[in-house]
Design a protein that fits this description.
Elements lengths: L1 E2 L11 E4 L1 H5 L8 H12 L3 E5 L19 E4 L4 E4 L5 E5 L4 H14 L4 E6 L2 E4 L17 H4 L11 E7 L5 H12 L4 E4 L5 E5 L5 H12 L6 E5 L5 H6 L2 E4 L5 H6 L2 E2 L7 H17 L3
Parallel strand pairs: 1-14, 2-3, 2-12, 3-4, 12-13, 13-14
Antiparallel strand pairs: 4-5, 5-6, 7-8, 7-9, 9-11, 10-11
Helix pairs in contact: 2-9, 3-5
């Protein structure tokens, strides 16, 4: 792996894909003035910027002012594409089927007793009594997962974007490995929290696969994409992009997947790389 200063950037990147928490956002969940400026400069130079996050669309207010032309963001680890110019309206959904989600719930209850669950719907999150409460969602329903996933009439409920599973005793990576072994043939498992909190999506759904769909619609190849991330839920995206950077604060799995490494999120690691890309583009275009 190379650093941001000695890793070659693609000759003509057309799209930048960046995670938010632990990557673009500083630890206080703000976007620095430096980063705001360089994102605008990238868009002005004709490079699209996609925010690719595990966050639901309703938690995208931290960056909604910094989405330019297209206005789109990939949310919920690829389960949804939201139009932030239209108050987070979902324009693409890749749901987790409720029957699969129920099967995963039963499997994890048996494999890891003490697991508690939350259900992230397109309309909001709901969780079990033992699940750590979401203070940002005071209107959530609290009930057992089997009830939260039940539909009175098949097809009548809002799409399930993610199933969340929390364990109070297992380590985060051990819980992820256990869950993938027990039910990885039925759903996609990843994590982005420092706690043992798993994020479970439909089969084949990830940041990378939805980003690939969005790029294909624009005629953009992986070689023309620069990606940034810091946690296991970024690994597929870092592997897929032609050029990718793990943050200085990244999880070992993200570091192993990326082709380069940049500074930490608190030191504007994303901005460091984009500034260099723009400088190289200006130099390449300068008259000789």
């Amino acid at each position: 792996m190379t650093s941001a200063t000695d890793s070659p950037s693609p000759p003509a990147p057309r799209l930048i894909a960046t995670d938010l928490d632990g990557t673009l956002l500083r630890d206080d969940k703000t976007v620095s003035d430096r980063t705001v400026a360089v994102l605008a400069a990238a868009e002005e130079a004709g490079i699209e910027v996609f925010f690719v996050t595990g966050r639901p669309a309703r938690w995208m207010d931290v960056v909604s002012d910094h989405v330019h032309g297209h206005g789109l963001a990939i949310c919920a680890n690829g389960a949804a594409v939201a139009d932030l110019h239209a108050d987070g309206k979902l324009v693409k959904v890749r749901p987790l089927e409720r029957t699969i989600a129920l099967d995963v719930v039963h499997t994890l209850r048996a494999a890891a007793p003490g697991t508690s669950f939350a259900v992230e719907l397109a309309t909001g999150i709901h969780y079990e009594p033992a699940y750590p409460p979401f203070h940002l969602d005071p209107g959530a329903t609290v009930a057992v997962a089997e009830k939260l996933l039940q539909e009175e009439t098949p097809g009548s409920g809002a799409p399930v974007l993610k199933l969340l599973a929390h364990h109070a005793e297992l380590t985060p990576d051990d819980f992820l490995a256990l869950a993938r072994t027990a039910a990885g043939d039925r759903a996609s498992f990843t994590r982005s929290s420092p706690t043992a909190l798993l994020e479970i999506s439909g089969p084949g759904v990830s940041k990378a696969s939805t980003l690939a769909l969005c790029c294909a619609e624009r005629g953009i190849s992986p070689a023309e994409v620069v990606a940034f991330g810091d946690m296991p839920n970024d690994v597929e995206m870092l592997n897929w992009a032609g050029t990718s950077y793990a943050m200085g604060n990244a999880h070992p799995a993200a570091l192993a997947a990326a082709s380069g490494r940049t500074a930490t999120n608190s030191d504007d690691g994303v901005a460091v790389v984009i500034e260099r890309i723009l400088a190289e583009r200006r130099t390449a275009g300068a008259p000789r």
